[in-house]
Amino acid sequence: MSPEREPGGAGIVRAEILVAGAVQGVGYRDFARRCAERRGVGGYAMNLEDGRVRVVVEGSRGAIEAVGGGLERGPRMARVDHVGVTWGDARGEFTGFGVRYAGRDR
């Protein structure tokens, strides 16, 4: 999981992770939720219309990197072709991790 952009500083950060491959209809969002909850990060996972899954997470960099490692493997029925991550400043908007449906990003 190589960074495409990384903010300065330490502490709580945000990452948008886009996962491409056969990642829809195989339980990938629920898998992402379990990975995030195990690492104590907040955010969400949602399917995109183009077939990718977007995972937005906030937490420590180490916890997010651990989540990213899980996302690179994915659940058993998935095939992950590419994982891209964009780092940013945390917004503090999440109290847990959820699954979003129907491409609604808000």
Structural features, described:
It is a single chain. The radius of gyration is 12 Å and the shape is globular. It contains two helices and five strands. It starts with 11 loop residues before the first strand and ends in a 6-residue tail after the last strand. Strand 2 and strand 3 (53-60) form a beta hairpin. It has helices spanning 28-39, 61-73; strands at residues 12-22, 42-47, 53-60, 79-89, 97-100. The model is unreliable at 1-9 (pLDDT under 50). The protein is α+β, with helices and mostly antiparallel strands. It has one domain (12-91): Alpha-Beta Plaits (2-Layer Sandwich).
Reconstruct the topology from this structure.
Blueprint: E1 12-22, H1 28-39, E2 42-47, E3 53-60, H2 61-73, E4 79-89, E5 97-100
Parallel strand pairs: 2-5
Antiparallel strand pairs: 1-3, 1-4, 2-3
Q: Under the CATH scheme, which architecture would be assigned?
A: 2-Layer Sandwich
Could you state the order of secondary-structure elements as H and E? EHEEHEE
**What fraction, in percent, of the residue positions are helical?**
10-25%
What global shape is seen?
globular
Number of domains: 1
| Number of DSSP-assigned strands | 5
Largest sheet, described in full? 5 strands, mixed
Strand-residue fraction? Answer: 35-45%
> Which whole number gives the mean pLDDT?
90
User: For the largest beta sheet, what order do the strands appear in spatially?
Assistant: 4-1-3-2-5
Instruction: Using the coordinates above, name the CATH class.
Output: Alpha Beta
Indicate the structural class: alpha+beta
